[in-house]
Amino acid sequence: MKILAIESSGLVASAAIASDDRIIGEYTANTDLTHSKTLLPMIDELAHLTGEDLSTVDYIAVSSGPGSFTGLRIGSATAKGLAFAWDKMIVPVPTVDSIAWNMAGAEGYVCPVLDARRGQTYTGIYSFHSEDGIIVMDTVRSQCAVTIDEIIDDLNERGENVTFLGDGVPVFSGYIKEHLKVPFAFAPIHERLQRAGTLASLGLVLAKEGKALGGDEFRPEYLRETQAERERKKKNGGA
């Protein structure tokens, strides 16, 4: 089985192609360029460098959110366009789950924290165990949009060591150091952010679990209202 993965939920733009036993190719950039300018060239270059006919992949995996509203829309549109052109199904991969998968096999809890602005973080809590030599991710707390103090209180109550990762680490590290009462660590930079290789790996797992959707069925999962929706409600008196 082969899968093309597209990651655009944050500042990182990334594309990868993977099979059941290896990452065939991956292209990642963390720059100020917009995803609308980087994703398709990345995918074209990936096909050129690997010699793969990407139209023959079995699935297209895409980061389904939460994250940057604009980034998610660009990734969704790219995945849908390719899915319709190639007659493929889309595997939606929750963003926070995918980031946690960077730390597959870690001891204790893994807690991605993404900067959701407005005093909130996109986060979740995960742990890992092995079954017949295969690493399995357990969702302890599903991805959600909460304040940093709420997730820290949750982790303190659980009482286990935890590893943090995500673009919220530099934003919230001071608060974490001051308020967390359990042993903790911050993931190194090569494991901290979104990347399409990880997305592809988890996408393969989800595809085998039957979680692929048709292009017309897939919708990003924002977890919060978009700015346009908030402004509309404000204009209509909260309705």
- The gross shape turns out to be globular
**Derived structural class:** alpha/beta
How do the helices and strands follow one another from N- to C-terminus?
Answer: EEEHEHEHEEEHEHEHHH
Query: Which residues sit in consecutive blocks of at least 5 with pLDDT less than 50?
Result: none
Q: In percent terms, what proportion of residues is strand?
A: 25-35%
Largest β-sheet summary: 5 strands, mixed
What is the tally of beta strands? 10
Number of helices: 8
N-end to C-end Cα span: 47 Å
Descriptive labels:
239 residues, alpha/beta, five-stranded mixed sheet, globular
Structural description of this entry:
There is one protein chain. This protein has helices at 35-50, 69-86, 95-101, 148-158, 169-179, 189-192, 196-208, 227-235; strands at residues 2-7, 12-19, 22-30, 59-63, 89-93, 109-115, 120-131, 134-147, 162-165, 184-186. It has a five-stranded mixed sheet, sandwiched between helices. The protein starts with a strand and ends with a helix. By secondary structure, the protein is an alpha/beta fold. The chain has eight helices and ten strands.
Summarize the structure.
This protein is of the alpha/beta class and 239 residues long.
